[in-house]
Amino acid sequence: MHGDKIELCALYCRRFPSLASRGVAREIIKDHPEVFANMENARKTVREVRGQNGVRDRLFNVDRFKDIREKFAFDIPIAEPFNTTPFDLTDSRLLILADIHAPFHEPGILDIAIKEGKKRGINAILLNGDTADAYRCSFFMRQPGLALFQREKFCLVEILDLLRRKFPNAPIYWKMGNHDDRLPHYIYQNAPDLFDAESKTLTWESFLDVADMGVNWIDSWRKIYYGKLCIVHGHEFGGGGIGSVSSVNPARGLFLQTKSVALAAHSHQSSIHNEPDIRGRLLTCWSMGCMCQLAARYRPVTKWNHGFVVATLKDGEGNFSVDNYRVLPSGELVT
Fold first, then answer.
1. Which of 3, 173, 211, 312 is least surrounded, with the fewest CB atoms within 10 Å of its CB?
2. Which domain holds residue 324?
């Protein structure tokens, strides 16, 4: 995180070369209040960038951008950093659960998925978005007294603890979805002065102590690569996500968005779409079912179905298989 602060201060030092360090710090705090705890911390980092804190700190002088600038014919400002590096998963057998929407989850469906995961010998779990519902943080109409935050937090801790007890040695990955994002977005909008990006206060990570449970965090804007398969939650494309492109078949909507082999959740529907490219290679996309209640107060009639996925890496070349399970009302599993 310190490196990110250095990058930001270096950018503002170049933007305002004639301002005193306190003036540069004031501009940074005004535009990025979430980065520094106070003005003094920002000023000290600006002085560090300018080499004004002593000989030891001159390593981070603003001239370190010289090599970058020399690549261009003109003095183009350095862009804001944004990490879109894909997250690589290499576990051989993966249980993928999505759209749990605690506390609106279906305990029986989770039970079925866990039993199948044990039976299949999975060695890692991916929570592919919307594990939390963050109902009280929604900007939509909220029913008073329903799904209070402490109740949701309790359910999430219980679900994570259950997964850890049933799969004690399996890494658990939590990929953020649009409902998970409701919590940080609520903080950004309503209490930005309380947000500390460095210590991650007021986030799901700190509220639930996920690191102590062995849960690995994946930000919502990062794609997941599982061999040759790209995994997303489905909201990353903006608008209504994959469903906004193809409401009939979400997997086809995913194909139209990615033009690749991919898997997504978000639509709460199990579907598959196959299409060859011009070289004759078959490209397949999957959308997966949900693990929450099949009706919501804002949508009492839906096309949703329950489901989960077991994905397996076949070899070192990235070849894989996908078992896209649907759970029928009887509890029977079909693919």
1. 3
2. 87-334
